[in-house]
Amino acid sequence: MQAILVNADSPLVLGQVPDPTVGDNDVLIDVKAAGLNRADLMQR
Question: How much is the pTM?
Fold first, then answer.
């Protein structure tokens, strides 16, 4: 799956990460869309 990778002093990078595994008492939610605004970016 795709994810935004965050490293300490590096720019944000779009990359591939393995799909998460689900345990017996877990739920996996399929996120179709997400959004950011300027305030979200400034908190980094």
Answer: 0.54
Joined tokens for residue 25: 């008492």
Residue that is written with structure tokens 């799909």 in the block:
19
Higher-scoring residue by pLDDT: 42, 13: 13
Q: Per-residue b/e over 1-39, b at no fewer than 16 CB within 10 Å?
A: eeeeeeeeeeeeeeeeeeeeeeeeeeeeeeeeeeeeeee
Angle, alpha carbons 7-41-8 (nearest 5°): 15
H or E, element range at 38: helix 38-42
